[in-house]
Design a protein that fits this description.
Strand content: 25-35%
Shape: elongated
Oligomer: single chain
Structural class: alpha/beta
Bound molecules: cytidine-5'-triphosphate, magnesium ion
Number of strands: 18
Number of helices: 11
Length: about 375
């Protein structure tokens, strides 16, 4: 309720998200562990003012929306309404549902399902302006300079101080928005948003300060980056008659590390961190030591395989930090060559790779020179 009056909210989520692309419309893509539309729903479900929510979506996604409604806004979602070809068709369907099922609603807020970062402050500010003026939209000042293009290919600078970018929610007195939509459809007029129709019907629209964070996800670049962290740890024992390979660098030493592959403990820890961050298991799962094809293999090749797996799953590496625990030999003289090897395998700059060595002050199996341990931490972005 707002000032004692009932508020209906229409969430427009019937688009196909063609500019983002992919098999699922953008409103169902995952943002930080939950579907975009769930976030949008939560923004309104957590706002006291939003009494009845009407989700409008494609017929094939009705069930999916019902499940989201039950999980994220159980007592607020009134109906899931079938969408139409254009956003305006979808919103009109929802407006008719509001009129039929919630005729007592004094105000209607219309919001894009693809704007999952709207704040309660913007919702309240729009409602307050609607109370006073009957129609209001959230807008933000333009940040980029503007130019107007002409048909002949020329362009001229435009003073951006006179322009704002329009967001949602757009709020209206119910009678104002119904009249505007009825009129537009009677005349076959399509506009870019709800305010256009209201203005066209002769009712002025108030501008309310929106929020730069309240972006609409329109293209893939608008999707917030997800950062994930992983850790890895590995130990190999020393063995006579083996080469000592760390970070893909062969270090002259009287013994090497025992193992099925080249026993590069540093890269093994790193691979486990990478797989861990992507929730793709561990190296034992991907490269079982019972498989003959991995006997003696360079771990740098296994690392390339892990990178291909990450790429398939949409991840790239932000950075990695590895600590090698060895009493002897000294790691330091080889660190730069190791960083080069790893940076190349990961396809990133070497300043994103850190490698450090430590002794364990002669304590434990490392201190007794029985083996070498390595620990890695990495971040991935998706
Ligand atoms: N929308 C809708 N019904 C349509 C088209 C769009 O409800 N027929 C909704 C979208 O789901 C979105 C909002 O209107 O939440 C804004 O539209 P837009 O950003 O254009 O989304 P899409 O139409 O899904 O994307 P695209 O134009 O790239 O296909
Ligand atoms: Mg669209």
């Amino acid at each position: 309720m707002y000032r004692g009056k009932k508020v209906a909210v229409i969430i427009a989520a019937a688009g196909k998200g063609e500019r983002v692309g992919g098999p699922l419309p953008k409103q169902f893509l995952d943002i930080g562990g939950e579907p975009m539309l769930a976030r949008t729903l939560r923004c309104f479900a957590e706002a006291d003012e939003a009494d009845e929510i009407f989700i409008v979506t494609g017929a094939e996604y009705t069930e999916r929306c019902r499940r989201l409604a039950d999980a994220y806004a159980p007592d607020r979602v009134r109906t899931v309404v079938p969408g139409g070809r254009e956003r305006q068709d979808s919103v009109y369907n929802a407006l008719k549902a509001v009129a039929a099922e919630c005729p007592e609603a004094e105000y209607v807020l219309i919001h894009d399902g693809a704007r999952p970062f709207v704040t309660e402050k913007v919702i309240e500010d729009v409602l307050e302006a609607v109370c006073d003026r009957g129609a209001a939209v959230a807008c933000v000042p333009m940040k980029d300079s503007l130019r107007m293009l002409s048909d002949d290919g020329s362009s001229r600078a435009v003073d951006r101080s006179g322009y704002v970018a329009v967001q949602t929610p757009q709020g209206f007195r119910t009678d104002v928005i119904m009249r505007a939509y009825d009129m537009a459809f009677a005349e076959g007029f399509y506009g870019t948003d709800d305010a256009v129709l209201v203005e066209r019907s002769g009712h002025p629209v108030a501008v309310v300060t929106g929020d730069y964070a309240n972006i609409k996800i329109t293209t893939r670049e608008d999707m917030p980056m997800e950062i994930r962290t992983g850790t890895g740890f590995d130990v190999h024992a020393f063995a006579e008659g083996r080469r000592l390979v760390l970070g893909g660098v062969e270090i002259p030493w009287d013994r090497g590390l025992d193992g099925h592959s080249d026993a590069d403990v540093l890269i093994h820890a790193l691979m486990d961190a990478l797989l861990g961050a992507a929730a793709l298991g561990d190296i034992g799962l991907h490269f079982p030591d019972t498989d003959e094809k991995y006997r003696g293999i360079s771990s740098l090749r296994l690392l390339q395989h892990v990178m291909a797996l990450l790429a398939e799953n949409g991840y790239s590496v932000v950075n990695a930090d590895v600590t090698v625990m060895a009493q002897r030999p000294k790691i330091r003289p080889h660190i730069e060559a190791m960083r080069d090897n790893i940076a190349e395998a990961l396809g990133i700059d070497r300043d994103r790779i850190n490698i450090k060595g430590t002794t364990t002050e002669r304590l434990g199996f490392v201190g007794r020179e029985e083996g070498i341990a390595a620990e890695a931490v990495c971040s991935l972005c998706r």
